[in-house]
Amino acid sequence: MDIRGYETGPIAAEAAFTSDFEIPGDLPVQKLVDMLEIERRSMDIRPGMRHKYTPLRFDSAAGTPQIGGRYLFDTWDNVLDYDDFTSNELEFEEGVKFWDRPFFLDVDRHIWRVTGAHDFTPLATTHHVNRFERWTYDGDAANAARLLEQSWPALRDHAGAAGAASVWLLHQPEEKQIGVLTVAARVAADTPGEAAARSLDALARTPSPGQLLPDALGAAQVFDRTSLILAMWLPESRVLGGAPSAYPAAPVHPLPTVPPQEPLGA
After folding, report:
1. Residue pLDDT, tens place only, 80-113
2. Taking a C-beta distance cutoff of 8 angstroms, is the pair 181, 127 a contact?
3. What single string gives the DSSP state of each residue in 222-242?
4. pLDDT computed for residue 6 by the predictor
5. In order along the chain (266 residues), what is the average pLDDT of each group of 10 residues?
6. What is the DSSP letter of 188?
7. Contact between 245 and 40 (Cβ < 8 Å)
8. Distance from C-alpha of 180 to C-alpha of 149, rounded to nearest angstrom
9. For domain 9-246, is the CATH number 3.30.70.100?
10. Helix (H), strand (E) at residue 57
11. Angle of CA points 85, 67, 257, to nearest 5°
12. What CA–CA distances, in Å, run from 68 to 52, 73, 145, 230, 266?
């Protein structure tokens, strides 16, 4: 796949956006993938989006599909623009704002300040599973921001030494929350299904970079979810004439069946 414009190393992003919600179990994954691909074309054109991961997993007890988004943006103003656009303007069904869709269940979303983000390996070939964790804390937000800045180099290096493909450290000062996203490569196995299962298990069992959060924060974990990356939105690649999206979970989950997006300038 021809993915352009994403280099390894530090990521120049000031802001992030995350969402997590459930969808009805009777929604076929093929329909979900096709919906993602078509709706992306109205969403990844918003200013400043670097890329998005769409995670998908199934609740181990009820089997309910759990999905969402992990986005990076260049500036705080642009993540606010995206939040406003999706909350107050965007409609795919007439009269229904995006986040009010009845098949989006228990939506939990946040906008974040990025303390640090780093790609250790190429996004185009090795980003297949992700783990998102959130913590709350009770202290002063300005002091927490300072402590997180001090912690970032060690947290980043810990993730890299553990084999991560990417790691983000996020801060939501108004909500007094901390987020860590860890991305990993696919683990080799004899079949795609076995590879997916091993990859999820390996990342879930890897010691979290969050163990390096300073004790002074008094952080309490409130969320921990490891998922396959069903889709990636790649606006920087699209602008450069490359692939606009990718589907790392294939063939465990299907590729889109909708007509491909015309290359920019075609």
Report:
1. 999 999 999 999 999 999 999 999 999 999 999 9
2. no
3. EEEEEEEEEEEE-HHHHHTTS
4. 96
5. 94 98 94 97 97 94 91 98 98 97 96 98 95 96 97 97 97 98 97 97 95 95 98 96 96 96 68
6. P
7. yes
8. 13
9. yes
10. strand 49-58
11. 85
12. 10, 16, 26, 10, 31
Residue 249 in tokens: 């979970």
Could you give the CA distance from residue 136 to residue 177 in angstroms, rounded to a whole number? 4
- Give the 3-state secondary structure of residue 214: coil
Token duo for residue 166? 């990417």
**Stated pTM of the model:** 0.95
The model's pLDDT over 133-145, given as tens digits with 9 standing for 90+, comes to: 999 999 999 999 9
The distance of Cα 225 from the centroid of its chain, to the nearest Å, equals: 11
Size of the chain, expressed as the number of residues it contains: 266
Separation between Cα atoms, residue 221 and residue 177, nearest integer Å: 9
| C-beta separation of 259 from 239 below 8 A | no
